[in-house]
Write a structure and sequence with these properties.
heterodimer, A: mainly alpha, 9 helices, B: mainly beta, 31 strands, 13% helix
Chain lengths: 179, 397
Amino acid sequence: MPPDRRALDDTRLRSFIATEYRKVVATVELVCGSLPTAEDAVQEAMARAWERGERGEQIDRLPAWVTTVALNLARSQMRRWKSERRARDRMGLPGIVPDAPAASAEAHAVREALRALPRRQREATVLRYYGGLDVEEIARTLGISAGNVKAVLFRARQTLAATLGDDADDVEEDEHADG
Amino acid sequence: MPTVDERLERLFTAAAVEPTPENVFGAVAQKRRQRHTRRVARNIGAFVALLVVLAGSLVWLTTDDGTQPAVSPATRDSVARKLGDAWLGARPVALTPDVGYVRGPLIQSGEYVALAAYDRDGAGGIKVPPSRVVRIDATGHVVDEVELQGEILSFADGEGARWVVTHDADNVAPRQYRVKRIGPDGTPSSNAFPAGNEPVGPIVAGGGAAWVPVEHGILRFDATTGAYVGTVAAADSDRVPHLVKIGSDVYAYSMIGSKIFKLDATRPEAPTVASTDTALLSVAATPHGAWALTSLGGRMMVAPLDAASGAIDRARAPHLPKRFSASDLRAAGDTLWVFGRLDDQSAIVRIGVRADGSVVAERPVVLRVPANSDVLALEAHDVLVAADGELYRVDIR
């Protein structure tokens, strides 16, 4: 699909909310593990996109742009939470735990497996298997090379296959099949 | 037999949440407004700082008696203005008597300047309650002060009284906002906002009432008692309403929208909404009429606005300096002040409006003010900045 080069206005924003918003929020939520944080980050990213539109700047691929910005914002928020948690631990105060949505046992296992992945692997994996992005799109979104994306995905799939009860041999076969 | 990729896709899809896109547009619009407000505050702060530094430096160069520095040193976080490649620190304004921690909002109140003041908490912050509305003269002498209880958000003069919007000192959500009407004898009366409303801009008094913009409308408060009377719907439900006083009338316009209408407490019928042919970013009024900050062909401009018809007179629009990106417009007497950025630094442009309606835009002045500062540009070449509990003056000549 060719990029939508229209300036962002009310109509395009409402269209984005109707068609893309759920998917982008769910993607960010899978990465950061908090629905309020994901919603806040995506809405903040949309506000920034809107401002750019008002300045006459064009955003070629709005969903990808919003996803990238929202992931950055969510990452910052999670860093702040970690710092706050460490400080509260030092002071012996009860911790603040990001709320997690109710989930089935299988979904819980997937979320736990994702949480155990290094950040880059978690982001690439979610963009690939939930967001449906190809390697080039993931590379653009995360600001890394395509080769790096392939390596990150390969390691993540190995870990996930083991964690979620799959056979690592299948992963290697799939990886070779990807080229 | 599904591949690992297919299995992961299925598992991730099953694990994903289903967010509810309820009022997302409103939430995004509010974030955009908050970003705009923060940007304007940053710009204003930087602008004021720059003005203060310049003024202080000039005074020091011309009148210093050698006994003490007349200008604060321009540290990295201080109020300052840029002059050439140098940053010049601002001149502190000593208030007599001391009123404690000085903070915005700052407004011109007749011949005086009104500001908010609080008790200091001993750790660089404030203690609330009490709060105080303080009026000072040009020398920093305190003319009067009125003690209130909540944190002060905005001031206005008009309809025979002074008006203050506060929120209660406790931080229990949702916050309770109030309008305080200060009568001619200095006695305040407190009137609560209707539940669920929070201000999105300063209070304005005129047109037979006091008005406060909220997310989707304008709250009306009785001019005599200060009591809440009703809510006027915004002309565009998707836009945040802003208010501007033009003469003795008050107009509401939708920010970054193209609708403007007069608020009139004496007329029960729905107001007549005028449309402009381009989006209004900000509107301000001198004694000779209203001006709009708008854009044409991607270029920002300040042009006379007929608020009743929505007509914008581009032929009389002064040229704004190149590379200056405007974001807000204010008026002080016959002077218009445009706040914005120049080469990614906060800057202001002073526009003098002559009696014959001709206008002259001066060169932009780059300012630096700390975060959470408040800036009041005066009619001449002075800018006041409330920053870190103190008041500063910047001369931008």
